């Protein structure tokens, strides 16, 4: 992100920095990771200037084109959100049950719980695969082309859904769209984090989850409409997928490649063209200065990686990077541990089992609440902070789960309305907490050099854990030993456990530049002191302010 502030010198002398880098270049001359500058004096005498403190509105206004591009990139998430909701809720349609279920003695069709579990869990397995391999092509061919490839996969899954007649064919569609979800979480999150202005980075990153929510809402509306049509027309619910992928591809046409990726690949002219196009209207912007800033950040990361023998997947699990990796995982994993598999993924199935006459209407209401909550929380992410929102919202969702579990122990005529009300309150907590902030922490807390690799491993781990949750959800819901009430209590217990770990480990990152986060992690500042700890950039801001008033 460009910052129209004067740069300052390193505290260390230029000669010392040049000597350090020359020594590293000599020591690692045959290391193919090293791409150090030919003339280090050109790139190391400057230190990134302190980021300016801007409100979300000021950020979006000043960096309006960068913000718009981030929204365009997040449009690629709409199809993901649609598929995630649709694939879990369509199983409650009568026509779907007749197509893939088995005729029972009572004359009704019923889906095999094992098939339902496999559709959900194996989809998460391929999402794990997408997350684990997605960082490699995203680093090699660029973020932009990966975003397009995701939409091609989503269209392929929708085509297979239109023609599937056997349960394993429907499973094939789930495997394809799961792969697309995993790849999207790698490339789109990384793209947005690299293009978003620092002052509004958290709020803009949360639009990724807003994309999921809007896609899920459109899916629930589509399913609700299909319930009013003849059962054999259940496939009409899938058609919206083509429109969403088409819209995402139209938005993709206007996306430039990430300037940071171009700089890392040594494509100076292309990088400067992107910087000028995206940030040229910002007051005080200088393309050469900004390019130098990007190059300096990347080269400093490379030097640091050499000093620590870094730059590989193994480096994620070394030193302070391990702490940053765990923090990247926790809020995202909490999305599953706090109950999303039953109230999100299998919402219509859950409401159907709870006895609601129109389970899809309940899903529409939930998704409407989700969108409203996510829109409302956008300014709060930068104002109230990530950690405070995460803790408060998590408590709301856990409390809702406990009430739902208690109500479902002895169902009455009032159970349905109470269940919907508590699910909506749960949705508010989920949407403003782990739902909005899971992707923010995953994108913010890794080092610049390891961001794509770290995101890939985070996706792999979170999708792997989600696969377990999604697999056991329908089994527990259909189990005589657990049933609805105890299944909800199970998720309440898991959510509480993760809450306590997050309280101890996850820091406040509001308003911090990547350089500040690097400093705070290197200094091993406890999570609860991140917000109050003064950094070098804070000191520089005070010095600049003092000079301005002198």
Describe the structure.
- This protein has helices spanning 14-27, 40-44, 56-62, 64-74, 77-89, 94-100, 113-140, 143-163, 167-195, 201-205, 207-226, 240-253, 259-264, 268-279, 287-307, 319-337, 340-345, 347-353, 359-383, 386-407, 415-432, 434-444, 451-477, 483-505, 514-522, 536-549, and strands spanning 8-9, 46-47, 102-103, 109-110.
- By secondary structure, the protein is mainly alpha-helical.
- It has a single domain (62-259, 313-505), classed as Growth Hormone, Chain: A (Up-down Bundle), CATH 1.20.1250.20.
- The chain has 26 helices and 4 strands.
- The strands form 2 sheets. A two-stranded antiparallel ribbon has the order 1-2.
Oligomer: single chain
N- and C-termini, Cα separation: 29 Å
For the sheet with most strands, the description reads: 2 strands, antiparallel
Low-confidence sequence ranges? 1-18, 20-46
Total domain count = 1
* Amount of helix: over 70%
Q: Helix segment count?
A: 26
> How are the strands of the biggest sheet laid out side by side?
1-2
The SSE string, one letter per element, is EHHEHHHHEEHHHHHHHHHHHHHHHHHHHH
Q: Quick check: average pLDDT?
A: 82
Q: Please, what is the CATH homologous superfamily?
A: MFS general substrate transporter like domains
Provide the structure class: mainly alpha
Rough shape?
globular
Q: Return the CATH topology.
A: Growth Hormone, Chain: A
Strand fraction equals under 5%
CATH class: Mainly Alpha
C-alpha-based Rg, rounded: 24 Å
Task: Tell me the number of strands.
Answer: 4
- CATH level-two architecture: Up-down Bundle
Pfam families: Sugar_tr
Protein name: Major facilitator superfamily (MFS) profile domain-containing protein
Family: Belongs to the major facilitator superfamily. Sugar transporter (TC 2.A.1.1) family.
Domain Major facilitator superfamily (MFS) profile: 69-510
